[in-house]
Structure formats: C-alpha cells, structure tokens
Amino acid sequence: MTKPSLPELLHAAVTAVGGSERTGQVTMAETVAAAIDDGSHLLIQAGTGTGKSLGYLVPALAHGERVVVATATLALQRQLVQRDLPRTVDALQPLLRRRPNFAMLKGRSNYLCLHRLHEGMPQDEEDGLFDQFEAAAPTSKLGMDLLRMRDWADETETGDRDDLTPGVSDRAWNQVSVSSRECLGASKCAYGAECFAEMSRERAKLADVVVTNHALLAIDAIEGAPVLPSHEVLIVDEAHELVGRVTGVATGELTPGQVNRAVRRAAKLVNEKAADQLQTAAETFERLMELALPGRLETVPEDLGYALMALRDASRTVISAIGSTRDKSVQDEDAVRKQALAAVESVHDVAERITQGSEWDVVWYERHDRFGASLRVAPMSVSGLLREKLFTDRSVVLTSATLKLGGDFNGVGASLGLAPEGVTGPEDDPFPTWKGLDVGSPFDYGKQGILYVAKHLAQPGREGTRTDMIDELAELIEASGGRTLGLFSSMRGAQAAAEALRGRLPMPILLQGEDTLGELIKKFAADPETCLFGTLSLWQGVDVPGPSCQLVIMDRIPFPRPDDPLMSARQKAVEEAGGNGFMAVAATHAALLMAQGAGRLVRATGDRGVVAVLDPRLATARYGSYLRASLPEFWFTTDRNQVRRSLAAIDAAAKADGA
Questions:
Q1: Alpha carbon 308 to its chain's center
Q2: What confidence score (pLDDT) does residue 407 get?
C-alpha cells in the first residue's frame, strides 16, 4: 500500500471537522511535517482563521512517533481533546490504516485525590473545613460542593477538574486534591490502584499524541524528574505565552501565612526543640514582613538575610525530624507527614534559594491589600533554561497568531533562548538552529479593519483620569452603536471609564469583575449594543465574531509598569550588556499584548471594524513603527472624522442585516 500524502490526510481531516482548506493551513502542515522529519526547530505564525490546530495535528498524527502538544489555555486543550482530535483520528484512520491514540495530561493537583476525598484533609487546618463534608445535610456552599464532588467521584472516568460541571471554587477543590509533593505515591496509597492522576499518566504513556499545558511542560523541564512521557516531537501552541508560564513555574514565594502553616503542620510530628526553632524563625520573618515595602531588593538586607537563614536551617532540622519520627496518636500519619513535609520543604527551598543568591535571580517584596506582604524570587530570564531543556534531543514547533513582532521572529526567538535566525554560534557550543515562517491569515485585514490612532489626544500620564480620552471613547462608542470591547491597561482605568460612561451613554456597559468572565462574554456576544470593558485576560481571551464586536479600543500602549521589579530588572540587564533594554523588554511586551488585543477584532471573513488606540505615542513616538508592524495590516489613519464615518457606516450595515 502506498503511504497517503499529506494533502490527502489534511483534506480528510478538514472535511471531518466541517472546515475548508486554506492556503496558509496547507503551507503550515507541509512545513511542520518537514521540521518533524528532519528534527529541526520551527517558529510559525498562523493568523486567526488559518486553522492552525489541524495544521500541526495532521502531520503529528501522520508521523507515527509520540508527539507532545502543549497549550496555554484550558479552552484550547478542551477543543483539541473533545473536538479536533476525535474527528481527525476518525478521518485519518482509513488512510493511515491504524488508529492513533491521544490523551490529556495535567499536573497532579488538577485531578481528584481519592485518598483525600475519602480520608479527609489532615486535621491541621485552623478552620476545620472538612467537618462540613461529614455533615448529613450541609447548608454552606462549600459543604454542598464537597458532597457533589463525592458523588461525581463515582461517575467520572478522568477525575479531571475541568470535567466537573458546574465547577467549584479553588477553596473547595483544594479539599479534594493534592500537589505532587503531598501525594503519598501509588505504592503507599490505599487508593493507588484507582488513582486518577496515575491513570492519566498511564494513558499518556500509550498515546501517540499527548495534550498538556505550558505549566506541566515547564515543570518537566525545570525539575529534572520527567513528568511527560518520552517524545521525539514537541509542539507548543499559543507559544507567545510560554516564557510567562515558565517564569511563573520558576518563581518562588514566601509569605508569613505560608510559613505559619508549615509550622502548624510540622508541630505534631517533630520534637519540641525542632518545632520551637521553626516557630521562632517564623515569628522573626513575620515581624520583618510587616514592615516590608514593595519593590526590588538588589541586595538582600542583613536582617532579612539572617531571618531567611534561620528559616532555612530550622526547616532543614524539621525535615530530618519528620523523616525519623512516627506518632501513633496522629490519625492517618502518612498523609499528615507528607503534607507537612511538602509545606516545610517549600519554605526551605525558597529561603535557601534567596540566601544562596544568584546574579540570575530577581528578589522583591510585593504587598497585596487582602493577603499582605510576600517575598518573591524569579529568574532574570528563562531563555538559557529553555535553550538547554527544550531544544535538545527533539524537534520543537512553536506556533501562535502572534510570534512575529516588529516584522521578524528574533524578539520572541531571543526570549526562548534562540539566536537570531541564521546565527549558528561557536563551534563548541552551537545555538539551536531554527526557521521562522509566517503563513499569513485568510482575512483581508486591509479591507476588513481600520487601525485608528487618536493622535490629537494628550499623552497619557501615570495618574489621574484622562478627560479627553473619555470624551473620545464616548464619541467612538456612539458612532459604532455600542459593539465595543474596551481593553484597558489597568483595572482602575477600566472602572473609571465604565463609571464615567454609564451615566452618559444609553448602551449597556459590562465591567470585568462584576460577573464571571464567561458570563460577561456571553452577554456581550448576545447583544450588539452592549460594551465590555476589562483588562489583561480580555486582551487575549475574547473570541466574538460578528457584529457584537466591531470596535476594539485600547486606552494606552500596555507597557509594563515602571515599578514592575522583574521587567525593570530584565530591562536593566539588557542595557548593562550593551543592548536597548526598552525595546528588548518593554516594547516587546507591549507589542505582544497589542497584537493579541487587535486580534480580537477580525475573527471571521465577514467581520468589519476598527481598532482604536487612544494613545498618540503609537503615531508620534520612534518606537511606534515597531509596535504598528506587530499588528495585523489594517488600513491606518489618524483622522478622527474619517473613523467616525466608517464606524457609523459599519453600524448601519450591521443594523440593515438585522444585528
């Protein structure tokens, strides 16, 4: 039998999902297949509407060896596992003469823990939440959720939190899940043979395609102990988010609450001297944190250094003591011991990391209105880590609608540990070679959208309401008849704009935080006159094709805050190395967000509208051309009268069509 060609396979898959083949999708599939065959690395930008999921799934399934697909969002993971992969596998089976297997794999805390569900949470928590679980007729929301999860445990095949509908709060889920550190291990657990997390790992070992998330990919790379099954090919979708997710996993945190919890959990399991040593260190740390002011610590102050060394040493003593002590009076001691060890090890690891010090780490204080002060440590850059751990011994394909910033892939490539395209590096330590490709989009951005920059407005300052911006915003929304997604660089800005315009415009204005994000987006999509205002998650998380979203407004260029410790440290490091820190860090950050935000406008071939940026710097500043080059190729104007006429015409056309 002759092997089916890639175009045949792609055609079968596209037909199965009810789509239509597009030139960019075919180009993408062929390029991904070539990269997989020769073991090379690929950065591929595929605009909205390309059908990029099939563009990489078809060559992955045809490959025959195991492929790991890592995504950033739960929505895409669900789409792949519940829709795209089942239909694609069904379509390809007759051509491939085999049925590829696929599986989902997440971190352990995403799965229901049967031990914790049936035996209860170790009783060291101050609020005794699990008592409600045993009540015959709990009336609290938490108690009812816990009983519902007990019933669900008898029905679910996966134990995956995302399969529980409706969902539950983090507080409720934490009662029935464990981290990898808290897990007893399948061989020691009474429920090991039925463990949902273990079953998911077994399914992954047998699968041709394993769908996971960026966080688990980061854990697999950072911690050294393999979490993912061995694989020849890695495909990273939503790759523009990978650096942020890896940084998050590599970030350590210490809070007084966390340290005190570790003290409580260990107290019953160790001798009095070890417990007192940890308690004293915790109290010293808590006193210091009460005085902590937000900001970066370029050098660790002496008093904090002593407090952290005391925490480190006391934690080490307690860890040794927990390992050798058994207390017959403690019920289900193995679970209590494991939970205590996890809490104390976490404190020890962060305290040791900060006291050891590294020129590659950034340390800072944060203060939260609700949770108080925290001490955080994060890597200055994850590029070296990714270069070493990601691009070795396998072919890596990274794809997204926004990878090409300022006209090329080099900015994103550098953040991933890749040298500029074509640069090979020294003979004894060559850089990973890679290729960048933009397969375009099926949309005609120049005819479907306008990029309007309000050049006449005053430049935004750090504080205060911009009355001229609010006036401009009101006029644009009126001209468009509602239909507006407002993307703001801060929650304060979104709230101020919503408050100012709700009494001024007849259109309903929804505000992020006043309902769940899913409900807000549903209401926004259902009523064309409705506007939706919000911040970061809206820049990347809204998919509303059609007449409900015909105006996307950005209040200002979303540079990182000047007082952001990690971003400012990264910028300074680039400058000290002789580079342009602002362009490498701040402008790249802004370009990525703006590209994502502008991508909310055109989601289908019939969409028409305007992206309005109410920050004159996009038209006047030297870096403006770099930012504009990162956006879809909309028709560009600074003419406020022209854009109002265009919006009014788009609104009239939508109303004529009944929307």
A1: 30
A2: 87
Dihedral angle sign, alpha carbons of residues 634, 639, 640, 643: negative
pLDDT, residue 450, reads 97
As a whole number of Å, the end-to-end CA separation of the chain is: 53
Give the Cβ contact number of residue 574 at 10 Å. 18
Secondary structure (DSSP) of 112-137: --HHHHHH-S-TT-TT-TTHHHH-SS
Which pLDDT score is estimated for 327?
A: 57
Q: CA 453, CA 618: separation in Å to the nearest integer?
A: 7
Pairwise CA distance, residues 455 & 453, whole Å:
6
Residue with tokens 């816990």: 146
Same structural domain, 343 and 459: no
375 and 332 both lie in a single domain: yes
Distances 91 to 33, 53, 58 between C-alpha atoms, Å: 18, 15, 10
Report the DSSP beta bridge partners of residue 450. 610, 635
Give the residue among 240, 627, 654 at the shortest CA–CA distance from 451: 627
Which pLDDT score is estimated for 377?
97
List the structure tokens of 395.
Answer: 């072919």
Residue 1, domain member (yes or no): no
Q: Which residues of the chain have pLDDT under 70?
A: 1, 122-139, 323-333, 425, 428-429, 462-464, 659
pLDDT for 439 equals 94
Indicate the burial class of 467 (C-beta count within 10 angstroms; 0-12, 13-18, 19 or more). Answer: exposed
Query: What residues have CB less than 8 Å from 293, skipping those under 6 apart?
Result: 365, 367
Residues 626 and 586: their CA atoms lie apart, in Å, by 12
Chain centroid, CA 46 distance in Å: 19
Q: Note whether 357 and 502 are same-domain residues.
A: no
CA distance 405 to 589: 10
pTM: 0.88
Which residues are within 8 A (CB) of 51 and not within 5 positions of it... i.e. 6 or more apart?
A: 14, 19, 22, 25
Total domains in the chain come to 4
**Whether residues 121 and 15 fall in one domain:** no
Q: For residue 19, which of 71, 73, 74, 83 has the smallest C-alpha distance? A: 83
d(CA 29, CA 437): 12
Domain co-membership, 27 together with 39: yes
For position 33, which CATH number holds? Answer: 3.40.50.300
Q: Which helix (H) or strand (E) holds 607?
A: none
**Per-residue pLDDT, 122:** 66
Provide the domain limits for residue 546: 445-656
Q: How far apart are CA 65 and CA 141, in angstroms?
A: 46
